[in-house]
């Protein structure tokens, strides 16, 4: 067997917001019985969604697919204000599993709007978190930019009355470039005290940067629709790792592409469970004489409480 060193990034995998969202679905099923409806994938991971589906969760894209008499949970990515408003109108039981760090961005946006500022949001068009955040304010009050080039084409109502917010799962480095462009074009723009990119996204990207110089290839375990997972691939490539790939699980690894390597890095997006990481390590162990080295750049001990309506059930 060929010798291979696997550098395992830490932190990796589940963040506090994902952990909380999954618990909310499990506790809702325990409290109200199956089925419990979930608007949008609770987190972007097929393995997690399939596991919850087996327990009695029904995943839908819109509220009109849910019956009035069953509980509905809103995903960790957040929802536009119109969604809970409609659920209330229909007298539905609903639980909001929005990550508290996403809710913090919602509150920022509302505060700036109340002060008469128009918002610029840095994020990816169509992503559920972006739709949810933009949906906190009336139409036209949030302008979306995805790239530095977009900043040049912004046409705000009043260039002197602007604030910016960001999606929580962006590339730290890419976002810094867009923020710099915004500040250059709109010197008076108001920003958050600390960028909105969440601690988990920042920490996972820092860990990838730490292992990138040591490795021939990088595997990121995560879903194709997971923004933070896709950013990890990009960060790995930008840090000099020529081969960086996103895989959902071990069966997706392209072993032919890895022929001749002696070092590999493994990390996972914030919605990928540890069981999938172990599965990938076992797959390498069955093919190589494996040495696993942990590269830890931060410790995470953050925990978010579940909503009171579910805590009361315990």
Automatic annotation (TrEMBL):
Pathway: Isoprenoid biosynthesis; isopentenyl diphosphate biosynthesis via DXP pathway; isopentenyl diphosphate from 1-deoxy-D-xylulose 5-phosphate: step 6/6; Isoprenoid biosynthesis; dimethylallyl diphosphate biosynthesis; dimethylallyl diphosphate from (2E)-4-hydroxy-3-methylbutenyl diphosphate: step 1/1. The active site is at residue 129. InterPro entries: LytB/IspH. Dimethylallyl diphosphate binds at residues 44, 77, 127, 226-228, 271. GO terms for molecular function: 4 iron, 4 sulfur cluster binding; 4-hydroxy-3-methylbut-2-enyl diphosphate reductase activity; metal ion binding. [4Fe-4S] cluster binds at residues 15, 99, 198. Isopentenyl diphosphate binds at residues 44, 77, 127, 226-228, 271. GO terms for biological process: dimethylallyl diphosphate biosynthetic process; isopentenyl diphosphate biosynthetic process, methylerythritol 4-phosphate pathway; terpenoid biosynthetic process. Transmembrane segments: none annotated. The keyword NAD does not apply. Coiled coil: none annotated. Catalyzes the conversion of 1-hydroxy-2-methyl-2-(E)-butenyl 4-diphosphate (HMBPP) into a mixture of isopentenyl diphosphate (IPP) and dimethylallyl diphosphate (DMAPP). Acts in the terminal step of the DOXP/MEP pathway for isoprenoid precursor biosynthesis. This is 4-hydroxy-3-methylbut-2-enyl diphosphate reductase. It comes from Rhodobacter xanthinilyticus. The gene is ispH.
